[in-house]
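Hey all, sorry for the wall of text incoming. These are the two entities for the joint prediction.
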Amino acid sequence: MNKRILIIDDEADIREATQLCLEVAKGWEVITAASSAEGLEKAAIAQPDVVLLDVMMPDMDGLETFEHLQANPVTRQIPVILLTAKAQATDRRQFTQLAIAAVITKPYDPLTLGDQILAILGKASH
Amino acid sequence: MFTQHHLTDHSDFIQLLSKEQQVEFLLLFNRVVDRIRRSLELSEILNIAVSEVRTFLHTDRVKIYRFEADGSGEVVAEAIHDQRLPSLLGHCFPAEDIPLEARELFLSARQRSIVDVLTQQIGVSSLEDGEVRYCDIRFRPVDPCHIEYLTAMGVRSSLVVPIIAQEQLWGLLVSHHSEPWQFTEPELQAIQLIADQISIAIAQSQILNETRLRAAQEATINQVLSLLHSLPEMKLQQALELVVHALNGSGGRLYLAETPTVLIAGHQPMVDLAEMNGFSKRRLKSSILFMEQHPYWQTWLDTEESAGGWIISDLAQSEAPAQLLEAFLAAQIRSALIIPIQYHRQFLGYLSIFRAAIDIERIWAGRIDREDPRQQIPRQSFETWRELRKNQAQPWTELDINLVQTLSHHFAVAIHQQGLYQRVNSLNASLKRDIQKRKQAEIKLSALNTELEQRVIERTTQLQKTNLELVRQIEQREREIQERQRAETSLARLSHQNQLILDSAEDGIYGLDSQGKITFVNPAAARMLGDEVDRFIGQWMHVAFCHAQPNEVPYLLSESPIYATLRTGTIQHRAGELFQCKDGTHFPVEYVSSPIHERDRIIGAVVVFRDITERQQIEQMKDEFVSIVSHELRTPLTSIRSTLGLLSSGWLESCPEKSQRMLEIAFSNTNRLVRLISDILDIERIKFGKVMMEKQRCNATELMIQSTDAMRAMAEKAGVSLSMHPISAELWVDPDRIIQTITNLLNNAIKFSTSGAKVALTAEIHAANSSEILFCVRDEGIGIPEDKIELIFDRFQQVDASNSRAQGGTGLGLTICREIVQQHGGKIWAESQIGQGSRFYFTLPLVSNSSHSSEDHYEQANSNH
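and here's what came out:
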């Protein structure tokens, strides 16, 4: 079951490592975007199965990007998994109010990340 | 002598007598005189006189007729010869028988008369001035009435010679003869001599009687006096009885006004005082016990004539009120002698003597019918008849009166003395009683004194004990007072302290009563709530503060935790809830609401609260800081974990390039992590003074060179031109920390500069302040927005995070710089314009002249380097 994944993260090292991780472990097609603007554009075009969205980005943070994705009918149905290095409970509390598929806290385990995404998508499809 | 004298004086007529007669007369005269001398009894003398005179005259009857006060008379002595005439002894003759004018002649002219019934001649002879005129018998016709009178008596011849005693007509010496008889003048003179002797005898007898009476009275007085002055007590009763007896009274009474009392003897007037009082009840007091107290008595005495007393000879003729009169008469009292008893002028009472009525029997010679108009004609009969006059008053004699007055005086003296005596006795008795009482009192007093002394001793002991106890109590009280004062002082101090604490407390404190009304508010609370303290007192807390939940929804009263404290007594500790200020704004508070208990009852609550706006901001900042630090740490860790995970999975064994690349990423992020951790640790240590600045003398040039050298490689790599213009200045700093500061600033400048840009490090001594050196790092980078220029020295306050990430900064560099500069006593700041670059300045103090001595040493060392 091939998947197309869009990773939106301003950290180049994380984009590169995560992309390689998913490609090698699951053989999925991974597209990356270094900013929110780039990510919105690629999401609309590529129509990924899931968007892995970094929360803390300089130009537009993850939540605003999510609102844009939701606002656009083309990207509204795409599940979004937030990737965040903010592990505080107060940070996480604000995410739960949004229609976000899941939140994965950095640093995630690269060996199980694919399975985690699959489990989230499976739960979401239900 | 007496006889001789008289006989000598009158011897003339004797010579006229016959020899026989002379002898006879002399014998007669001598006998009479002798008898008179011998006897003091008048009746005897009179009897002798009549007997001798008859013998001398040889007439049938010689009698002595005595006048009574009323002019009547009685035959008191009589001598009759051979019953030739009837006896008239004891017979009385009415006053009319010897008319008044005849009696007056008897007295004034000493007229003697000789009546011869036969010849109806009367011979009258008067004595003039007591001189005897022998031949002066003048005969003249006698009054026929007189003749008739004598004839009726059977008398043919009479001789009457008056008997004068004490210049009063005492009586008559009368000679009657049943036959005609010639009296010669010498006989007349002889009879006159006898009559004179009789007069003398009468006078003597009267004197004797008087003397006897006086003696009797003296005796009576003496007896009375002895009774009155008898000891130990005067015998008034006996004295009264004696007086009554002495006065021939039927009764008597002695009224003593002072007591008042009445002593009685014999018959008493039957006075019914109750009845008498009844006549004028209004005026009388029931205290009237005796008639002498009764107004009638005094009224009566006032009407009677008084002469040292009231001599009532006949009560029936008196002015006595009917009630009194009846009372007297009922008791057969006819006469009364009432003498006031007075000592000087003090009235003491009355001495009253009563006499009963008596019956007087008189034998009259011939009855006179007073109603008969023929009264004037001489009586025809001298037939004896007996007159009995009943119920006659016994008049009081002068002697009686004198006696009673004298006795009354003695009574007065005695009663007065008795009064005095009784008073003295009473006083003595009183004195004795007083003395007795005094003695008893002294004994009692002595006993009392003893008892008192005992009591005093006991009381003193008791008082001493009490005093000791009192002293102890006072000391205890003083201690208590001192303790109380200390406690009060302490309390006041505590109160003051409490007040100060309440006033000074930064936390707001207020109290509520059990209803939820505010009872007190401290200044901090009032200040936080934006109003005066006084405005809150008495208000409902729920209204005043508008207590709301953290989401600004006001509590319902029933849900308010503070009211739960009042209701249930639970302590409520809440944070983040809101109180409303007076201006309507809210502020977050943390409070503790505690119940106030009194005797297991909740009487209110005390609420301590504080405005946690700032704390919330700090917490927020802290949260943000932790969040950022977390993010900054987790980001390189993510790269490291991902790459190392891939490498460890073996999935890249067939791709050595990929493996190499992953290693590079891992290494790079590891370095980043190390720097980050170092910076974080540094900043905390420097901030809290845990890093000692190892200050030493340094040269500015050296520090600038070392810093520039350290950054030269980075600048070259970034294509940035790095220039430096050092100056020589001596600093007293930690060289490593200053080099760290300069390299941080150069690092930032290089990081935020594009390739080809210039970064310059310069230094200068401030003209205005020669004690400082001013360093400047200048770049031509993107610049810093004006609103961020103050924030960039705070932690993780990079202007552009993306760039930061691109440059691998930790966001803590400037913060570290600021801490170091401040630890050296300098300042750091930035100036910037967007698009034109930024300038970072900092100052450091120069070494003072005194410390320049080491400058040479430094330069030498530096040149060696």
